[in-house]
Amino acid sequence: MVFGASEFADNPEPRCPCLLLLDTSGSMEGPAIEELNNGLILFKHELCGDSLAMKRVEVALVTFGPVRTLVDFQTPDAFQPPRLEASGDTPMGAAIIAGLEMIRHRKTAYKANGISYYRPWVFLITDGAPTDPWDRAAEMVRVGEEAKGFSFFAVGVDQADMDVLSGISVREPLKLAGLRFSDLFAWLSSSLSNLSRSHVSRPPDLPPAWWAQR
Amino acid sequence: MSGASWRVAMASSIGQSHVAAAQPCQDAHFHLEAKDADGRPVMVLTAADGAGSAALAELGASLACETFARLVEAYVGKGGRVAAIERSLVERWINGLVYRIELDAKRSGAAVQDYSCTLLAAVIADNSAVFVQIGDGAMVIPAGTGWRHVFWPQHGEFANTTNFVTSERAVPEMDFLRLDEAVQEIAVFTDGIENLVLQKASRTAHAPFFDSMFPPVRKSQASGVDAELSQALDKYLSGPTITSRTDDDKTLILASRRRS
Questions:
Q1: CA A186, CA A188: separation in Å to the nearest integer?
Q2: What sign does the CA torsion over A31, A36, A41, A47 have?
């Protein structure tokens, strides 16, 4: 994009990137995909209610089954929650690799434009198990977490294979209680708000994950 | 050249995020004026930003500010010249300051990391000046008709990471500069107002800010710290112009030996 940098000239605030990796495979059909869609609308709404988060948080969205980049990094005011439909299999490995590549690109753009940024968050939500090889993705997550290049969170829904998620995510994956996507996205929005206003002398407080199954 | 005496306005103001979290202001600052062997003034300014994740950050910040200034005072008092200060000497001062923190930590059963803070220091004599920085924040001095930062703030990859005097990388990554020229004015500030007064994209000081902040200091009739002006500065730092842009603690020291 030739004129792509104007977003940084208009808004020089430090950025807090958040990448959503969402499972839209066939098994999500029905109430799950409905609740996920509602959650995304709420997510935008909540972020837009915080004037600082609105300038600092950037959302990107990749769905899998098949892998599609539906939204590249943009601030909440520009983010239009897409209407997701369930279909296909679960190429989770490829989705993670594509997503981490987007993060790398975004950091390069921040640096080139003198924009400071917070440690990116990657949020993976799935109700199944990968139908493609995922060892390379897991390795990239491990290396990235170790280098503190990003924070990777995995959330399992319903019949999700929590063992595979544990193999991918360095942090312990959490299981969504029922279909509480709205609670999950309210939590995510409030965590990102806190992260986007954290500074050296005030690290972020992350609220407890009240949406997770205990 | 001798010129006018230094006049100083300085304040640290608590950030809204600290008020909300019932945390104290974890910024500190310190000023002293010593006399060199020729009886000429040597001004020492220090500012520090305590790490919010550290339990005794506000104590660390004030210890760092005062201890560093006292070490410089002792050096100058024994006939040491600012023009002769080398990096290795400042490294010993930093080690001394960390030792001072270790003593305090031992006494109170705390860890040295509980005192984590940044440090900004300026030591200014008639025709030479030394600048030292560990961590973020910055110092800005005149350059021609404009302004320039002495060092760029030390941030890690992310906006909320930096270097501390208590960290292992403190001394190797310490910024040190001696200028053998007459520095007439200086602003020292912690990272709380960084985004407001530095232009990150162009890596420059935001001239209109400094142009507007210095005239009252130049006009001051005080000798040394102007209490009234410092109070006004505190009010400004706590006011809506600043707090709408940052909820962090912020410290600003303005010193001038120019006459209007």
A1: 5
A2: positive
> Mutating which of A201, A202, A205, A206 best tests the B interface, going by the most B Cβ atoms within 10 A?
A201
CA distance B125 to chain A (A): 32
The residue in chain B having the minimum alpha-carbon distance to the alpha carbon of residue A13 is B195
- Of B18, B51, B247, which has the smallest distance from its Cβ to A200's Cβ? B51
CA distance A100 to A26: 24
Render pLDDT for B248-257 as a digit per residue (tens, 0 to 9).
Answer: 899 999 999 9
Burial of A1 (0-12, 13-18, 19+ CB in 10 A): exposed
Q: pTM of the predicted model, to two decimals?
A: 0.80
- Residue % of chain B over a pLDDT of 70: 99
Give the other-Cβ count within 10 Å of B259's Cβ.
Answer: 9
Q: How far apart are CA A65 and CA A63, in angstroms?
A: 7
Among the partner-chain residues A12, A148, A199, the one whose CB lies closest to the CB of B200 is A12
With b for 16 or more beta-carbon neighbours within 10 A and e for fewer, the B146-185 pattern comes to ebebbbebbbeebbbbbbbbbbeebbeebbbebbeeebbb
What are the pLDDT digits (tens) for B145-203?
999 999 999 988 888 888 999 998 899 999 999 999 999 999 999 999 998 899 888 89
pLDDT-based confidence at residue A2 (cuts at 50, 70, 90): very low
Contact A200 B15 (CB under 8 A): no
